Every structure is written in structure tokens, then in C-alpha cells.
Amino acid sequence: MPSERRTLLTKLCPVCGREADVLYGGMCEECYRKLHPLAELPEVLEVTLCRACGAYKLGGRWMRPRGGDALREALEAAVKRSLRVRGYVENVAITEIEGGRVRVLVSGYAAEGMRSYEEEYVAVVRVRWGLCRECVLAKSKREVARVQVRARGRGLTSAEIALAKRVVERFLSSRWRGNLDLIDVVEEGDTLDFVFSSIPSARLAADALKRELPSTVLETRKSAGVDDSGKRFAKITFRILLPEFKAGDLIEFRGKLYYVTRMSGEGVWAIDLDRLEEVKLGRSKELIENGRIVRRGEELEPVIVASVRGDEVEVVTLKGGKSISLHLERLHPQLKEGGSALLAVIGTKYYVLPPARPPV
Questions:
Q1: 233, 227 in Cβ contact below 8 A?
Q2: CB under 8 Å to 185, separation ≥6 — which residues?
Q3: How many C-beta atoms lie closer than 10 Å to residue 27's C-beta?
Q4: Other Cβ atoms within 10 Å of 153 Cβ, number
Q5: What is the mean pLDDT of residues 81-90?
Q6: Residue 229: pLDDT band with limits 50, 70, 90
Q7: Do the beta carbons of residue 56 and residue 42 sit within 8 Å?
Q8: Rounded to an integer, what distance in angstroms lies between the CA atom of residue 102 and that of residue 44?
Q9: With 50 as the cut, is the pLDDT of residue 89 above it?
Q10: b vs e for 94-120, b when ≥16 Cβ sit within 10 Å of the residue's Cβ?
Q11: Rounded Cα–Cα distance for residues 50 and 180 (Å)
């Protein structure tokens, strides 16, 4: 801001009559500051908050709060938009929000040559409560997206259903909107659907499931009519497809036999039946789509390892108490006398295997 500055040994301020060595616009510093405030703030600051999720409106857009105090963030945005700077402003900060008023501290100087100082401004706070567009959709229970969890060629196990629910619950609890956009969880037999009123929330939930479960994702879009504003909208379905096999199954992949021991978002672990060593098969699309079941886990015989004498192993079936003597080239190191195991017969070969780990 242009200003007139003159240095004098002794000069009277024409406004207050006091002596001053330096004049600003023909006045002493105090009088100049009184007549030239650093900024102007409206007497009333109006903000709009969503009563459901705490988002605030900025212009024509709803903004997600960065922290836990949506009112302060809304007022900071309102101050930034409405404050009219008159001097050289260095910093603007809200110092207090209380009793329907907000106090704003502005630091800077009115004219060049002055030292920085602070001025306080007070405005009345008027809060309007409403619903953001996402919360309007959530309140109306209108489905715009669905996340389906399925398994190729089979139903989901109870452990897989429980795990998928935990993944989505954990993901939603970490978001600022929480579970507001999740309007229904549909569990029908051995299938699971998460119904959302928000496409972004559904997409993020699908991503979370993809990270935690070895699976492929298929996204489909279908026209669902016209919304209240006259715009056409589509309903999106995210299909999370788990492999046909599960932990405990014997599979064939790339010409080799494996016993699947555990599955997670990091991949599939299995025992190579040729070497009886656990290997990581990964989580490639090829594995998920082409891993072929040779024996399901339910078809394996639960046994107790009764004795191990070199390559001679004796097991006892739990169902009938039948004793079976086997000559094995090697035994998995996890198996000990008295321990639980599973007996698998493939062709003429017998395998004694440790129990698989359920998904966690």
C-alpha cells in the first residue's frame, strides 16, 4: 500500500497533537493505525455444516474436514474468503470460538517502516445445518453401488464371510464418514453383498477387500435412471471373486500338486507335495482362475500320528479308530507323534499333512 513517510527531529501529529519523529501519511503511527486497520472482517460469518457427517460447504462444494473440528475448519475457510486485507498482513489465525462469536487475530503492519503488530477482530457466527449430497443419498437408502463377494464355483465359507465383514468394518471405521454410506449388508446362504449409497465408498471398500483377500475384481456399470437434478446415473457393481480352492484343499497348478495351507491378501501359501516344503504361490490372476482342485479339504481323513519310525509312519483315523501303517519317503517337519494330521490319497500315493490355517 503506498504511503508517505517523512523523518523529522520534532513534528506534531495534526490528529492527536503529540510529537513524533516519523509520520505516516502525515500522522503519528498510533493515529495512522487507528485510521488504517490491517483488515476488514464482516460482522457476521455464516457457515453451512452437514449434520450427519460434519462436512462443510465452501462455495458450492462440500468439503471433507481434515481434522476433528469441522466448525473451526469451516470458519477458517470463511475468514479466508471474506477477510479484506488493507495493510501488509503476515498471518491470520482464529484464537477463540465461543458464545456464538469468533475471534480472529491478524498480524502485520499498516505502512512500510512500521514494526509488525497484532489486531483482533470479532464476528458473530451463524451456523446453518443441512445434509451434504452423500448423506442425502445415504438417508434415502438409495443404492448406487454394490460390492459382491463370491467364490468361483462354490459358496463362501463362514470363515471367509466373517473375514470379509471384518475387512469392510475395519476400513469404514478408519474413514471420516464411517459407515454412513453402507446402507445394507446382505448375506444369503453362502454369498455376501455390501450395499452402498456412494460409489467412491464402494470402490474403496472393494479395494480394501482386494488387498486382504486373494481375488480378482470385476466392475460392471448399469444405467439406473435419472436423479433429482435430471442427470442420468449408473449403478455400479464390484464383484470380488475368490478362487475355487480354499485353505485345506489340494490343487494342481502348472502341472504340480500343492496342499493350500493359508490364504491372505499377500497371497497363497501351499505345501509342494513333491518336496513337502511350504512355498508362496502368490496371488496372480492365473493362480486364482486356473488353480484346479484335486481334493477338497472336506475329503481328507482326519488322523492322529501314532508313531514315526524312520520312514515308517502309523496313523489312526479319528472317525473309525482304524490304524494305518504307511511307508513315506519324507514326513512334513510340522508333524509329530501324537499330533493331529490329515490323510490324503491321490492315485497310489499317500500324504500325511498338517491342518490348514483358517483365514484371519
A1: yes
A2: 165, 192, 193, 194, 195
A3: 20
A4: 9
A5: 92
A6: low
A7: no
A8: 10
A9: yes
A10: eeeeeeeebebebebbbbeebeeeebe
A11: 12
The answer to whether the CB of 164 falls within 8 A of the CB of 255 is: no
- Give the three cell numbers for residue 117: 503488530
* pLDDT tens figures, 164-174: 999 999 998 88
| pTM assigned to the model | 0.69
Residue 354 has pLDDT above 60, yes or no: yes
Please report which confidence band the pLDDT of residue 302 belongs to, taking 50, 70 and 90 as the band edges: very high
pLDDT band at residue 65, thresholds of 50, 70 and 90? confident
The CA distance from 307 to 269, in Å, is 28
C-beta of residue 29 within 8 angstroms of C-beta of residue 114: yes
* Residues 339 and 319: beta-carbon distance below 8 Å: no
* Full strand arrangement of the beta sheet holding 145-151: 182-188, 191-196, 145-151, 232-242, 216-226
